[in-house]
Design brief:
This protein is mainly beta. Helix content is 0%, strand content 52%. It has strands spanning 5-7, 17-24, 27-32, 38-40, 48-54, 57-63.
């Protein structure tokens, strides 16, 4: 069985944004590049926080998997 690294952290970690898919006029799906042997260790109800700079302002937004 291949070994899988489970990513679960409370500190921000940078991952490249690989795809933005437009699902509707107000909905997008974002895909991030994780290491090949890694998976996010998230359960239903967990949130992924995205940190970004938008129009010169630092923002943090929660998303669910």
């Amino acid at each position: 069985m291949d070994r899988v690294t489970r990513i679960k952290t409370t500190t921000p970690s940078p991952y490249p944004l690989t795809v933005i898919r437009i699902d509707a006029h107000n909905t997008k799906t974002f895909r991030f590049g994780l290491p090949a042997d890694a998976t996010l260790d998230m359960l239903p109800g967990d949130h992924l926080y995205v940190h970004a700079t938008i129009n010169g302002k630092s923002v943090k937004r929660p998303y669910t998997p």
